[in-house]
Amino acid sequence: MAENLFEGLPPPATELHPPQHQRQEEEEVVVELYPKTINADRKPSPLPAPDPVLKSALKRPKPVEPNPDATAPGKKLRFKTTTDASEKQVIEAMQKIASHIKNPAKFSKASKLAIQLIQAGSVKPETKDYFFAILEAAMSSSTSCTDPSVRADYHALFSAAKDASECLNRKQNNQLTTWIFNAVVANDLMTDDSFQFSKTAGQIKEAISNLPVATEGDDIEEAAALKDETVITDEDSQIKQEISSAAPAEENIKLESDPFGLDAFIPSSGKKGEKTKGKKEAAIKIKEEDEMKRFLKSQREALIICLEIASRRYKTPWCQTVIDILVKHAFDNVARFTLRQRDAIEKLWASIREQHNRRKNGKSVTGKLDVNAFEWLQEKYANEKISIRHAVGGSGDRRAQQWLG
What we know:
Structural class: mainly alpha
Number of helices: 16
Mean pLDDT: 75
Helix content: 55-70%
Largest sheet: none
Distance between the termini: 116 Å
Radius of gyration: 46 Å
Number of strands: 0
Low-confidence stretches: 26-41, 77-82, 230-234
Shape: flat
């Protein structure tokens, strides 16, 4: 019998590592050693969350800083951007602005501060007089409101002043209307926008149409204003003088008739009260008429200034047609202006009409052909013959039709 060659050697590798089914049986035996009650109450622990993937530093969001003023959910957080100022502080600020706005070098900064007061709602009936003093000081500046260095600031200031007009009285509103024509409308005529220029010309035309017809008294007042810089007529001044002189005369009569002052304890008669009330109403009426005359005078002067500014832009081709219509409208309503202003409008219309005729003939101040695009096309197609047989030109050639195939 042959000897076993593997005698005395270690067992094969399969014996060292049992098969898979054997290892599973051993594991199941170990599991059964634990009580079932304990295993039933235990829950598997959740797996730890994976670490976040790091992003690029350029894409990393900014860290959110804790806000101590954060409110409960559902409420909006609002930040206070303005500081409430007392009425005394607002008045002091307006007085400082009024003192600096006269200086052309400080006008830009002062006007911006005035606009901030308007936007903040600081112009109220209690502060309207101080605000009106700012506008009055601005218009009394040595620099014209149409000067290129301050033109934009004047435009912005008086455009914003419209929002505060509700707080002003009637006299102040009339003056503000005149200043708006000088500072806003006149500067709009210098725009490079054809639509804005036409719109501004329409505003001037509307203002001219709203003027009343000038009377002979307006011409007399204008002549008197040129001599003595006053607008009050002789009749109005005489009435005012009678009213002012009547007051001390009544006091002397009262002292003579009642030296001991006993009439104060006696009820006054109704006729005397009605007489005093009538005089007061007459004085108020005269004052209102004077204010209306002053307003019409200043408004007419502002419109004349606007017409002169518009006429200076006649060299600009796209302004010419609008200026023709505007000056012609002023000439048709020349009766609404005073004598001296009527002469100015007539001279202005004669100059515009002459330039218009030169332009129609193909001439201009510069010696070049000065017609706009509409007039050029109108002249081109005035004698053009267009055939109903789809011919391009009057000669009947069909080059475009042949080119199109």
